[in-house]
Design a protein that fits this description.
The complex is a heterodimer of chains A (about 260) and B (about 290).
Chain A: H1 5-33, H2 49-55, H3 58-92, H4 97-108, H5 111-124, H6 131-154, H7 160-167, H8 172-201, H9 204-209, H10 219-227, H11 233-256
Helix pairs in contact in A: 1-11, 2-11, 3-6, 3-8, 3-10, 4-6, 6-8, 7-8, 8-11
Chain B: H1 5-34, E1 38-39, E2 45-46, H2 52-57, H3 60-93, H4 99-111, H5 114-125, H6 130-137, H7 151-176, H8 179-187, H9 192-203, H10 205-220, H11 224-229, H12 237-246, H13 251-291
Antiparallel strand pairs in B: 1-2
Helix pairs in contact in B: 1-13, 3-7, 3-10, 4-7, 5-7, 7-10, 8-9, 10-13, 12-13
The chains are: A mainly alpha (about 260), B mainly alpha (about 290).
Protein name (chain B): Spermidine Putrescine ABC transporter permease component potB (TC_3.A.1.11.1)
Family (chain B): Belongs to the binding-protein-dependent transport system permease family. CysTW subfamily.
Keywords (chain B): Cell membrane, Membrane, Transmembrane, Transmembrane helix, Transport
């Protein structure tokens, strides 16, 4: 393609503007979280006092603990189930579009629909709502994401080495541990990190499946109720910390398995 | 070995498929069924068959909320596609080694917390927010403009939240585009504009369609952005579903609304599949033409 100076200038300006649009709103929140006066309008000096005030807020701490429990347990289950699913699907090679749709559905179904469906389901079964129901629900979409990341890795996997291993007398478990797992491990870890982030950030489904009462409030639910009362320096600090966790997990995930975020 | 594989793969898939069936397929089927029942007098569910809930969805009052949601989601989709396509085009034209980096950083915000990204817009748009401060700094002395709690704020929030996906969806076909096609078009005397309109754009329709479907479907079912940036003044289908389940306690009607949402989603996905098929035909034509 011809690269006239005007064209290059146009392309660069587009990139600068788009990245400014994507990052300025977030950057403002991060900057304000370090603002001593706490006012969103005047910069009165650098301070960590809003982070300290978070540490003394019992509601936020218990919400953070709940979020951690939900994210860790749902990620563990989803990683196991999603990885097995990915191996099973890729091993088979011939599968119907019904199976494909079933695996793809949790990623495209609107959150609110899955949320009300699960609420109806749990209440019809007279299930007590709480952290355990949030975990059950989070595994649904988490396993789909883990599966898609691991499947992408398995696309280029040479299944004949699995057969070779079996022919040489290795048991199925040994073959998995020594042959398949080392190949897919980066994708499994990347998928798990992605699932962890999704779970930490998920609000709508948690909101509907948590039930009444503060005992099962997660961090996004806590943030939502705080936002409804307006802008506070604590929300800025809390938001900054949550974003730091997500961005770290995702960057790690991306480094382990190129292109995971692009899926 | 071969005959052994299907049974082992079924075994591997079984736990996940059981989970999806029990906690996605069955609950969704249940909601569908719920939509055919009546609301009990005290807010419970009365198990007698009715089509009233679907009739209510078409009631002018609710139909207007559907149209309103579609308009807001449509505006957000249009803006996100224009910005996202331009961004994807610029990324695809950047040096090869920089492309993955740009792509990563354009998608990164998308995976961070949705609520926080929406909250950031409250910080920007409120009466004493950054935008008002900037205006003052430039010498503006009048009343602070009211930007928050408007339809524009809702649209801005939706565009902001879903833009990364459009960039990603449009980048895929743009990066695979054969530069020789554009060159051939120029050699044959077409202007840059004509080349874009007649060659590049048609070949990248699948990406645009995928991005547009995503933004539209997620926007129309959204309840967080209208609640936070619209200040509850702009009801969208998502808010309506939320209200039926959590405040009005009319689950059968809420279920019918949720099913209408799924129907819209399927409709839009079908339209996208058709657009992709037609574009695939064009790609085949373009390739056939290039071979001559």
């Amino acid at each position: 393609m011809t690269s006239s100076p005007a064209r290059i200038f146009g392309l660069r300006t587009t990139l600068v503007l788009v990245f400014a649009f994507l990052y300025i709103p977030i950057a403002v929140v991060v900057a304000l979280s370090f603002n001593q006066g706490g006012l969103p309008t005047v910069w009165s000096g650098f301070s960590l006092k809003w982070y300290a005030s978070l540490a003394g807020n019992a509601a936020i701490l218990s919400a953070a603990l709940n979020t951690l429990i939900v994210a860790l347990v749902s990620t563990a289950i989803a990683t196991l189930l999603g990885t097995l699913l990915a191996i099973g699907v890729e091993m088979r090679r011939q599968y119907g579009s019904g199976l494909e749709a079933l695996i793809f559905a949790p990623m495209i179904i609107p959150d609110i629909v899955l949320a009300v469906a699960l609420l109806s389901f749990f209440s019809m079964l007279d299930f007590t709502l709480g952290l355990h129901t949030i975990i059950l629900a989070h595994v649904v979409f988490n396993l789909a994401f883990v599966c898609s990341v691991v499947r992408a890795r398995l696309k280029s996997f040479d299944w004949s080495i699995v057969e070779a291993s079996a022919d040489l007398g290795a048991s199925a478990v040994t073959t998995f541990r020594r042959v398949t797992l080392p190949v897919i491990l980066p994708a499994v870890v990347a998928g798990a990190l992605l699932a962890f982030t999704l779970s930490v950030d998920e609000f709508i489904i948690a909101f509907f499946t948590a039930g009444a009462g503060r005992a099962s409030t997660t961090l996004p639910m806590q943030i939502y109720s705080m936002i409804r009362f307006g802008i506070t320096p604590e929300i800025n600090a809390l938001s900054t910390m949550v974003m730091a966790v997500s961005i770290t997990a995702l960057t790690l995930s991306q480094r382990l398995n190129r292109g995971v975020i692009g899926q | 070995m071969r005959s052994f594989v299907p049974s082992r793969s079924s075994l591997l898939m079984a736990p996940a498929l059981a989970w999806l069936t029990a906690l996605m397929v069955v609950p969704c089927a249940l909601v569908l069924a719920l939509a055919f029942f009546r609301r009990g007098i005290y807010g419970g569910i009365e198990y007698s068959f009715t089509l009233e809930n679907f009739g209510l969805v078409l009631d002018p009052l609710y139909a207007s909320i559907f149209l309103n949601s579609a308009r807001i989601a449509g505006a957000a989709t249009l803006i996100a596609v224009v910005i996202g396509y331009a961004a994807a085009y610029a990324i695809a034209a950047a040096p090869r080694r920089w492309q993955p980096v740009f792509l990563f950083f354009s998608v990164l915000p998308f995976w961070s917390n949705y609520l926080i990204r929406t909250y950031a817009w409250i910080v920007l748009l409120n009466r004493e927010g950054l935008i008002t401060q900037l205006l003052r700094w430039f010498g503006y002395t009048g009343e602070p403009p009211s930007m928050l709690y408007t339809e524009g704020a809702v649209i801005a929030g939706l565009v902001y939240n879903y833009l990364p996906f459009v960039i990603l969806a449009c980048y895929a076909p743009l990066s695979r585009l054969n530069p020789e096609l554009a060159e051939a078009s120029r050699d044959l005397g077409a202007s840059a504009m004509t080349t874009f309109r007649r060659v590049i754009l048609p070949l990248t329709v699948p990406g645009i369609a995928a991005g547009a479907v995503f933004v539209f479907v997620l926007s129309i079912g959204n309840f967080v952005t209208p609640a936070l940036l619209g200040g509850g003044r702009f009801q969208m289908i998502g808010n309506l579903v939320y209200d039926q389940f959590l405040t009005a306690n009319d689950w059968p009607f809420g279920a019918a609304l949720a099913m209408a949402l799924i129907a819209i989603m399927l409709l839009v996905l079908t339209a996208q599949a058709l657009a992709a098929d037609r574009a695939a035909g064009r790609v085949a034509e373009a390739k056939g033409g290039a071979d001559d």
